[in-house]
Specification:
The protein contains ten helices and no strands. By secondary structure, the chain is mainly α.
Length: about 260
Amino acid sequence: MHIVVWQAMFLATGLVLIIDVVRHAAGCMGGEGMNGEVLRRKALEHRLESLEKEVHENSQVLHKFLMSLETQFGVSELIDLRELKRECHDLAQGIVANIADSPAPPMPSFDTLDSFQSKDDQLADDDIFEGHAKFDDRYGALGDIPNEGFEEQSHLGDDVFGEQADLPSTEERSATCREWRSTYGVSPGVSWGQLPLELQNKWRRYDCDIYLQDSVQGMLDHKDIGQRPRSQDHDDDFNVIGDIASSSEQDLLRDKEGLADKGWW
């Protein structure tokens, strides 16, 4: 009888130990459920706060060190920036001369009708009509090929050609183009900005890219653009770029030749 009691007690003790070990292992692996997740998150947040505080303190120490060097030795005054300014000036004049001589890139076009014709349809058209005749218009006559199935009108419309004869004067178109550029943030040859689609069509008909070529060359001669700030380097014996738009064509050509000699052009 005593042996049975001792065996039962030993078995119960063993079961309790096994259950405790299993629960402890589960707690270590699972982080004690939701409480473990909360503790780990708090630990990570504490580490992040400590790192941020350490970085801030290091930044303050480095700033104090640099300011002490500046106060005692005047490190920034020992650096001569005049040669760098000359190189920047020559490079800027070369860029302006290149832009003035090169045509402006084409404006991005957003044609709503082109989206109705998929790439597969375009490839099919190329395969069918390649080598037979030239397109006078996408939906126009095709030479020897019958015009059946191509009765759709051109996406330009007759009203566009009618408006070409009723365009405003050159002065009015130039003023309108400048107003659109300032109001909607248009960059000629680069971006439409916020210009609406109907005004984009008028922009093309008014030839605004031609009237605003001076903005590509100068970028400083329009009244809605502020004057370039003067250099704060009073000891510098070199004049900063200034108004590039006022440079003559001979100066630009001479700068191009100088850049070509240096191998920069």
